[in-house]
Protein 1
Amino acid sequence: MAYRGQPVPSTVVNISQVKISDGKSVDVVIPSGTGVEAGKFYVFSGFFGLVLKTIPAASNTAGETVALQIENCEYITDQIDTAKTFDLGSELYFNATTGKFTDTSATGLLLVGRVSAAKDANNVIQFIKYPQVITVGE
């Protein structure tokens, strides 16, 4: 900050606004004819996150815009491939085609987080989401 009597000349530039949001969600367009369920994870417009609004496929005729929560925090879900083990500390991948999480790496899957509570008897896991996604094999 410049002040009177400063030994080195400087220029003060006031920036009124740079930050737009906290980056915890992003608005994405759900393709027409596609339905989504609130509380489920999806990939839209290159973003992986949790949809916050249910949109039935039949009513989505023009492509609806919804908020996709992309916050890096701990989540709980039953949206998993129940045949997998999901041990504590396992890396977590998302298959955008099936809409399921897996703990097995494969080409085309998205690396999305790490399991923080192993799969329980109800096929539920907890995980810590990584900052946006990395596609395996690319």
Note: The CA atoms of residues 2 and 10 lie 6 Å apart.
Protein 2
Amino acid sequence: MQVRIPTPLRSYTAQEPVVELDANDLVEVFAQLDERFPGIRFRVIDERQQIRRHMKVFVNDESVRDLDTKLAPTDEVTIMQALSGG
């Protein structure tokens, strides 16, 4: 499956915008990402094991907040940083 990495987190992935993984759910996605790119998981997942409020995770075109979301090999996971303004 493909995991799309947002520009602000690409410093962890040597500027790679897309990472190929083999995971069954989002828990595995972030564990594998952190194994390959230490520190990236903490930027997306907080101490309570939840997706940080300012981050968005999409599976295909659907926004998800549950890390137990099951994945198929053909799914595309997109990590996005929410924008805010004043």
Note: The first helix runs from residue 26 to 36.
Protein 3
Amino acid sequence: MNERSRLKKIIEYTGMRKNTLAKFLGYTNSAIFYQIETGRNGISSNLAVRMTDRYPEIDQNWILTGNGEMLKLTELKSDGKTIEKVKFLENHIKGQDARIEKLEHTVQELNSLITNKTI
């Protein structure tokens, strides 16, 4: 499996948009993912470490090489509080994604107004 495919699986797994995931991992924007998708850069060990710090269930070796399975075969213990926190965070992320999308749309509209304005 190539790096683009692995990246795509990770993005799907997180359920986040690229920009949101990049910011969650500590990057300012999703340019790092674009560079991987276009083949300009590969998945760096720094990116793999950031991902596994945030998602310890993802196998770092798989991120870097594609060998093995994406998810580690560990038994996760969860209690009611953990499940409740996860659900809260998932809803929070969805809300943030919606806000980002709305702001991006507003920026596009403003850029359109500026471009179409005649002086």
Note: The mean pLDDT is 89.
